[in-house]
Amino acid sequence: MMGDNLINIVKRNTEKMIKVQSNISSGRRNRLPRENPVEVSHSIIYNRVLFELERFQKNIEDGRARLRTADSALASATDVLQRIRELGVQGANGVYSKEDRALIASEIEQLLEELVVIANSKYKGRALFAGNDTLEDPFKSSRTFSKYAGKQLINRVEYFGDMGDMNRETEQGAILAINAPGNEIFWAETSSLFSSVDATDYIVGKEAIARINGVEVGFKAGDNIEMIVNRINNANIPIRASVNRMNGGIILETSSARDIWVEDIEGGTVMQDIGVTSGGAPPKNLSPEARFFGGTIFDMVMRLRDSLYMNDAEDAGSRALGGMDLAFDNLMKYRAELGAKENRLEIAQARIMHERTDMEDILSKNEDVDVAEAITKLKMLEVAHRAALGVSARIIQPTLLDFLR
Questions:
Q1: Residue 226 pLDDT
Q2: Do residues 337 and 67 touch, judged by C-beta distance below 8 A?
Q3: Cα separation, 164 vs 127, whole angstroms
């Protein structure tokens, strides 16, 4: 019995020493969940929070890098527009000859080409100003022969991206769009669309959905044109709808410089029925019978260039330069918006770094072993273990042979 008791004591001391040694070598207070279920469950929660914070921090870093790249591109575009405007003011001066204005227009054409290149800027191989359709260049230019210039000139720059947001989650439930589509940034004038279809007696046959500038608008069966207009106006869209009292058609007008981007989705045909679209998805899906007004930054530059090539100093100094001012103002507006988003992300990044530091400290206190305390405990167990072995060696000296003499 004494032998069994001493063996059990030695075994328990050995197990305690192994546990302490394992804690010291691993740096963890608990090796297995059963040793302290409460602390282990807390550690799991803390580690999950740390993982989320790390993910948010990476999202913010990527978002800030993308916004900085976009701002750099827009800064270059601003410089190009500023130079074009200077050339326009110079060309509108009456002292210049037709040949002088042609030379100025030729430089503007080169700057226009550079502006298209900037609009197709990329970040990590993906277009910055294409919405979510980032694999292809969002802006494509076409050329035609100009009899005034005597050579091929850019006559159209079209947007082939989409209106999607490039979102990043900066904290639980907080989503921030870190982009703006090119048909908003590189737009210069407010847009208007006038349908030629008389929708006075039109009634929606079944529930339908249309997507207008990236926002889904639902229509109910039985809606007339007035209800369609109200549903569009009550949606969070920078577009105002109204009924044309002259022909009963619908009018869509943007509240700021941007394109009108409309499509029927999920089998609906409301926008097609009332003469807004010809079916299909944008771009190039607006009804050919509808009248559309509005121009891009590229349109304003081409207008100024053509006025100079045609030696029309009056048009260059009034309408064309006025369009350039609109283009410049819109570009600066979006630069300010993207800059504000970058500042917000900077603040969020600083906050998350503080939260990570605090959470790592809490996690360390919850699961990390106190090395000095553990070593002291190990030494005490070692002394007790040696004492137990010494006592065993001295007490259990008689054997069965001692009683057989």
A1: 94
A2: no
A3: 13
pLDDT digits (tens, 9 = 90+) for 215-224: 999 999 999 9
Among 15-24, 378-387, 395-404, the least confident range: 395-404
Q: What is the pLDDT of residues 287-319, one digit of tens each?
A: 999 999 988 999 999 999 999 999 888 887 778
How far apart, in Å, do the first and last CA atoms of the chain sit?
24
Nearest-CA neighbor of 70 among 127, 134, 133, 115?
127
Q: Which two tokens stand for residue 160?
A: 């082939």
The two structure tokens encoding residue 174: 């907080």
In the numeric block, the tokens 């226009």 are attached to: 112
Q: Are 187 and 259 in contact (CB under 8 A)?
A: yes
Q: At what angle do helices 37-91 and 321-367 cross, to 10 degrees?
A: 160
Give the residue extent of every domain in the chain: 49-185+295-355, 190-293
For residue 21, give both structure tokens: 């040694």
Assigned superfamily of 49-185+295-355: f41 fragment of flagellin, N-terminal domain (1.20.1330.10)
Q: What is the identity of the amino acid at 76?
A: S
The CATH number of 190-293, from 2.40.310, 1.25.40, 3.40.1130, 3.30.70, is 3.30.70
